[in-house]
């Protein structure tokens, strides 16, 4: 099939079901076949793979996924789209539709049931207002993932891939790069969607690490430190950390931890690499548990 990607076909199916776009769900349906093929290509889907699609809309990309994958589970929050999906996907027997909020779906259980607990791939045209919670929810729950290929707002894609010292670099950059290697596959203008969004978009492929690129004693502490470092970007790293409730060290002790990494106490968090944050997290962990010892 795959004919839904044509704008006139999208309009026909929407009119048939008297469908109205709902702003609260951030609905923008892709109507450009070149972009669609770039997404499928970037995800490198093979016929023996299980795919989780988030926000299938009217099933445009779902059709393409069904033609390439072993099985597809499409999770759609909007109940009004379910009858449309039942029609547009009626010709496929390797798909099921779940009418739920993806943030409330037990994805680990889904992976166990549909893929024997093996790593799966996620493909999605994500609603921009909830992109970060969805992606971080996937990563932080340690669901078995091979890759996450998603359409997101361009500035969010830029932040995911940003390097230390750049204006886009922040907590999201570090969090994503801890779990995956990001690659921007395509930039997508507003005219590739119906209705047109007010911002530019990008397709980004996050290839998940089998093991994190850095080793830390306490993963939660690492991310507490990262968040505290960027809560107020103008503050020095030490000042930012001293206001974090979960880091129970005095300012002088934090300064000592920073100096042990051979960094100036005036350093700002936006200049540190993921490796440096990991080293700092380990120093703070050890200092908190073992005190000021010369061998930590």
Task: Describe this structure as you would to a colleague.
There is one protein chain. With 296 residues, this protein is an alpha/beta fold. 40% of the residues lie in helices and 17% in strands. Strands 4-3-2-5-6-9-7 form a seven-stranded mixed sheet, sandwiched between helices.
Sequence-ordered SSE layout with sheet pairings:
Blueprint: H1 7-16, E1 29-30, H2 33-43, E2 50-54, H3 60-68, E3 71-75, H4 82-88, E4 95-98, H5 107-115, E5 120-125, H6 131-140, E6 145-153, H7 154-161, H8 171-179, E7 180-188, E8 193-194, E9 201-208, H9 219-231, H10 237-242, H11 251-260, H12 274-290
Instruction: Give the H and E element order.
Output: HEHEHEHEHEHEHHEEEHHHH
Head-to-tail CA distance between termini: 62 Å
Largest sheet: 7 strands, mixed
Question: Residue ranges: pLDDT <50 for 5 or more in a row?
Answer: none
Structural class: alpha/beta
How many helices does DSSP assign? Answer: 12
Give the overall pLDDT as a whole number. Answer: 93
Helix amount: 40-55%
Strand content is 15-25%
Our Rg estimate from Cα atoms comes to: 22 Å
């Amino acid at each position: 099939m795959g004919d839904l990607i044509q704008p006139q076909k999208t309009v026909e199916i929407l009119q048939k079901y008297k469908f109205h776009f709902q702003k609260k769900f951030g609905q923008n349906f892709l109507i450009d076949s070149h972009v669609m093929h770039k997404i499928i290509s970037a995800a490198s889907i093979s016929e023996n793979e299980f795919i989780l699609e988030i926000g299938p809309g009217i099933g445009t990309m779902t059709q393409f996924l069904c033609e390439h994958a072993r099985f597809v589970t499409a999770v759609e929050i909007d109940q009004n789209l379910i009858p449309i999906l039942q029609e547009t996907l009626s010709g496929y027997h390797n798909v099921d539709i779940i009418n739920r909020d993806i943030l409330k779906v037990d994805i680990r259980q889904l992976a166990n049931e549909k893929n024997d607990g093996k790593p799966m791939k996620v493909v999605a045209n994500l609603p921009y207002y909830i992109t970060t919670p969805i992606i971080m929810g996937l990563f932080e729950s340690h669901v078995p993932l091979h890759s996450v290929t998603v359409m997101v707002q361009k500035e969010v894609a830029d932040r995911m891939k940003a390097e230390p010292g750049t204006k886009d670099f922040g907590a999201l950059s570090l969090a994503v790069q801890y779990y995956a290697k990001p690659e921007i596959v395509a930039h997508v203008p507003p005219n590739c969607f119906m209705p047109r969004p007010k911002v530019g978009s990008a397709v980004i492929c996050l290839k998940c690490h089998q093991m994190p690129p850095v080793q830390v004693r306490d993963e939660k502490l690492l991310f507490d430190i990262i968040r505290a470092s960027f809560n107020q970007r103008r503050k020095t790293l030490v000042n930012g950390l001293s206001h974090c409730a979960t880091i129970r060290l005095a300012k002088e002790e934090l300064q000592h931890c920073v100096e042990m990494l051979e960094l100036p106490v005036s350093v700002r968090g936006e200049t540190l690499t993921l490796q440096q944050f990991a080293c700092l997290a380990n120093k703070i962990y050890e200092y908190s548990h073992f005190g000021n010892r010369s061998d930590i």
